[in-house]
Amino acid sequence: MSPHGHGSDDDEAAVTAISNEEWCSWLHAELRACPAYATHGALLDECCAIAARWRTRFWGRKALWNRMRRGSRLAKELAEAAPVLERARLEAQSVKLEGGARVVVIDLCSGFGYMAMFLSELLPPDKVERIVLVDKAWARHGVERRPHHIDPAHISDPGWPIRLSTSHADLKTPSDRRSLLRAF
Fold first, then answer.
1. Cα separation, 177 vs 180, whole angstroms
2. Nearest-5° angle of CA 96, CA 92, CA 43?
3. How far, in Å, CA of 136 to CA of 173, rounded?
4. Angle, to 10 degrees, between the axis of helix 73-94 and the axis of helix 37-58?
5. Has residue 1 been placed in a domain?
6. Burial class (CB in 10 A: 0-12, 13-18, 19+), 12
7. Which SUPFAM superfamilies does the entry mention (predicted)?
8. What long-range pairs does 56-62 form, CB within 8 A, spacing at least 24?
9. Which residues contact 156 (CB under 8 A, 6 or more apart)?
10. Per-residue exposure over 52-81, b if at least 16 CB sit within 10 Å of its own CB, e if not
11. Which residues touch 151 (CB under 8 Å, ≥6 apart)?
């Protein structure tokens, strides 16, 4: 049985029973096997350490942690995001701001928010004010979340180094695109 599980009750029990060290070893092995590791290995190693801190931070909320790691989904999303994470970090480090100004990063079609969560940990907080996750699956502000919406419990957690927020928008809808342009 691999430490990532496949969704059954037995798998969930097995993944929660392994140590943080065992889980991190599994995550490292998954990432070392992906093509992105050849060019982004140092970043992926750093992100493994970040994910280990998340596991510790969210461990007391098992349902939330299980949604965050979702079997091997965390490893897959991280491997896919590595080139963008690397580029975003380089851009944020090189941006010249005056008078204490900071940028707002917008994560379009964010889905669950893995990219924004890693960016919050990787980007310099002195240059980034917040990261906005934009997706049609987030509930609109002031509207009660329904079953088809993404639960934002992981995003609203106060432990993110750079504040995360959500915005409901369907990028295929012209009025939603215009609203985003006006807002940002």
1. 5
2. 150
3. 10
4. 110
5. no
6. middle
7. S-adenosyl-L-methionine-dependent methyltransferases (SSF53335)
8. 56/20, 57/157, 57/159, 58/154, 58/157, 61/153, 62/16
9. 164
10. bebbeebeeeeeebbbbbbbbebbbbbbeb
11. 67, 145
Cα separation, 74 vs 62, in Å, equals 15
Domain tally for the chain? 1
Q: What is the pTM of this model?
A: 0.89
Quote the tokens at residue 136.
């049609």
Residue 169: per-residue pLDDT: 94
Q: Quote the domain boundaries for residue 111.
A: 9-183
Residue from 108, 78, 102, 109 nearest 162 by CA: 102
Residue 173 within any structural domain of the chain: yes
Residue 4: inside a domain, yes or no?
no
Cα separations (Å) of 60 from 54, 71, 118, 151, 160?
A: 11, 18, 21, 17, 17
pLDDT-derived band at 9 (thresholds 50, 70, 90) equals very low
In a domain, 48, yes or no: yes
Per-residue pLDDT tens over the stretch 18-35 = 888 999 999 999 999 999
Q: The tokens of 6 are what?
A: 């496949």
| pLDDT score for 126 | 95
